[in-house]
Design a protein that fits this description.
By secondary structure, the chain is of the alpha+beta class. It contains four helices and seven strands; from the N terminus they run E-H-E-H-E-E-E-E-E-H-H. The radius of gyration is 16 Å and the shape is elongated. The chain binds coenzyme A.
């Protein structure tokens, strides 16, 4: 496992997925399309949120400021990490981070990050409460314990 070029805060995040940048995802400047990166982050965050809330019925409500800090090029391995930052009645806010893995240096560098709010919905598409037993004791300690099972 590569050594992350990150702070302890970042190390507390949970690995969710790896994406490999394809030629078809590259734009005019030779970098990965920003929209593709957003899609990767959204999907990984939704998978993480769905797992924590024990439901596949999570939708993306809001994406906060997105920082495209470094470029991603063809063949780069991009590892996506997530961390729950707040659970409300129907919503879960997730910090998501994409890190480019440098095989030569054996380290990860953050390329993009944001925070996404997901909402659990019912069969009618309305916001629905996350299961009570998951919301009970909603301190981050509990969320982190749930996350450890990933
Ligand atoms: C998600 C959706 C069902 C929420 O409906 P809504 O009527 O806005 O729901 P509510 O007002 O009851 O809010 C639901 C939750 O979102 C939170 N929320 C609403 N607006 C928010 C905002 N601007 N920022 C952060 N959280 C917000 C509320 O606080 C609430 O959280 P809580 O239950 O944990 O307290 C609805 O907005 C929707 O269907 N959006 C489209 C989702 C979608 O298709 N996403 C894919 C991207 S195209």
């Amino acid at each position: 496992m590569g050594q992350a070029k990150t702070s302890a805060k970042h190390l507390a995040m949970h690995y969710v997925a790896t994406k490999i940048c394809q030629a078809s995802e590259i734009g005019y400047n030779g970098n990965l399309f920003g929209g593709t990166m957003l899609s990767w982050l959204d999907e990984a965050g939704a998978a993480f949120a769905g797992y924590l809330c024990r439901t596949p019925n999570m939708v993306t409500l809001k994406m906060n400021e997105v920082l495209f800090k470094r470029p991603v090029k063809i063949g780069h391995h991009v590892r996506i990490y997530a961390k729950a930052v707040h659970m409300g009645t129907s919503s879960l806010s997730v910090r998501v981070e994409a890190r480019r893995f440098d095989f030569q240096k054996d380290l990860e560098e953050i390329v993009c990050s944001t925070e996404v709010v997901y909402v659990k919905i019912d069969a009618q598409g309305k916001a629905a409460p996350i299961d009570q037993h998951l919301r009970d004791g909603m301190e981050m300690r509990s969320i982190n314990e749930l996350s450890q099972r990933l």
